[in-house]
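Any chance you could type out a protein's amino acid sequence plus the matching backbone structure tokens because I've never seen that pairing?

——
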Amino acid sequence: MRNRLLVSLAVLGVAAGLASAYIYGIERKPQPPVFNPAPNPYAKGIYANGIIESYLTSGQNINIYPEVSGTITKILVAEGGTVSQGTPLVTIDDSVQRATVEQQRSQAEAALAQLDALRAQPRKETLEVAKAQVEAATASLKSAQDQLEKQQRSYALDPRSVSKDTLDNAVNAAKVAQANLDVVRRQYELTLAGAWVYDIRNQERQYDALSKAVVASSALLAKYTLRAPRDGVILSVNAAVGSYVSPQGAYDTYTQGFGPVLVMGNAEPYLAVRCYIDEILVHRLPPAAEMQARMFIRGTNISIPLEYVRVQPYVSPKIELSNQRTERVDTRVLPVIFRFEKPKDVNLFPGQLVDVYVGEK
């Protein structure tokens, strides 16, 4: 019984093995590819990685960073929206800076009021007081002189009628009255002359300095509102209301790095493709007048001819693989920029990676 069971199991194992060999030995017809890989359309074409970006006569996408630090209070635009130059994009909390401007403006206004007061001298009321003091001093001198004259006449008639001490006091009183009159006359002349020219110049300098401080503070206050540097399209908004931003940009939770608060592109009907030519292939680049290229959109069989724009004449490290602050690669590339007109039937966006072949006419 036992031997019969073993023989049965062996036969089943051999049958299973033969069936498996037959099944797995059947040649399966490969599935056709979803799309064909990008073919080289040129006899001696150079392959390059490319990235779509806004078409600008120089540079690439416009990265907008604030020049001041603070918390975002309003975001006034949406991604994909078209803006004109000077349009407010984002506002940052400016309460402290606004208070500083108001304080400095008040100081400048106070300095101007003081300057106007100096220029308006002599004040009518002050001049009248000085004039009255002159009149009072004149009257006091006349009284003292009359008193002295009486004492002198009495002394001339009878020296015993007036003591020497009384006569001396009358003489001294007349001299004091004369001195007081001289002082108040000079004070009147000083008041009549108005403010000293050096005081006016000093106050003018203070007012000018405070006015310039207001202008500088107002200019800094204006930087708390980010505005569009040119006409274009908002490609991305990388912060939210309540986020803290600085001249380094906005912190990205996912990349754990800092980036631009907003990215703008050009509203023209063209897009640019920045191709990175490997340094070992740079010598094979054809002359600019004879250069042509074709872009292949990944995941499709669509290709678009490109128009040569310029070469960025600086071979730099290839950093587009990931984060440029941490990426360490030995490959260096030469950026070459092409452009193409936006197709109406294909969705293409800045930041999209494409395959590019560069050839010769």
